[in-house]
């Protein structure tokens, strides 16, 4: 049996709340599929990693060369969207990142290796940025990569489509939601 973890990427107010600083209309479409993956994982006591993009106010941040200041720690936009983030289950943790990938300069690879995880199911926002960067680094760290197509999207549909094609061709598998649910049990 392959030991699997669910990585839930950036399900925060910034992207999902109607008043979020980086919200986009299609983001709402991932809420129900991502919630369903979390529920299946929690019921099976599968590790769930809630990843949050958070930055410090008033300090230089390399991402600001490409994106305006966003997800400032302690602010509304950096908080998890209602119903997301750790809910007190024994099989869930939080990882805070400052770059697109949940692996870059975090303890994620170390922690997953300590838990003997072999496969990661990656969902959340946005397909062509944080989900793809996380998938690429998961592959580089030797994890089997799975992305459920219904549980991720972007405000740039053509880039989301291209990213899913790249992930499926070079990094792992892009699967339907039901197949991902099965892998989490």
Summarize the structure in words.
It is a single chain. The chain is an alpha/beta fold and 185 residues long. The chain has a single domain, classed as Rossmann fold. Helices cover 33% and strands 20% of the residues. The chain is built from six helices and seven strands. The protein has helices at residues 13-16, 31-43, 108-114, 127-140, 157-171, 177-184, and strands spanning 4-9, 47-53, 92-97, 119-125, 144-148, 152-153, 172-175. Strands 1, 2, 3, 4, 5, 6 and 7 form a seven-stranded parallel β-sheet that branches. β4 (119-125), α4 (127-140) and β5 (144-148) form a beta-alpha-beta unit.
Give the CATH level 1 class: Alpha Beta
Number of domains: 1
Helix percentage range: 25-40%
CATH architecture: 3-Layer(aba) Sandwich
As a whole number of angstroms, the C-alpha radius of gyration is: 15 Å
- Give the structural class: alpha/beta
Short account of what is shown:
Helix content is 33%, strand content 20%. With 185 residues, it is an alpha/beta fold.
Topology:
Elements: E1 4-9, H1 13-16, H2 31-43, E2 47-53, E3 92-97, H3 108-114, E4 119-125, H4 127-140, E5 144-148, E6 152-153, H5 157-171, E7 172-175, H6 177-184
Parallel strand pairs: 1-2, 1-4, 2-3, 4-5, 4-6, 5-7
Which terms would index this structure?
185 residues, alpha/beta, Rossmann fold, 7 strands, 20% strand, globular
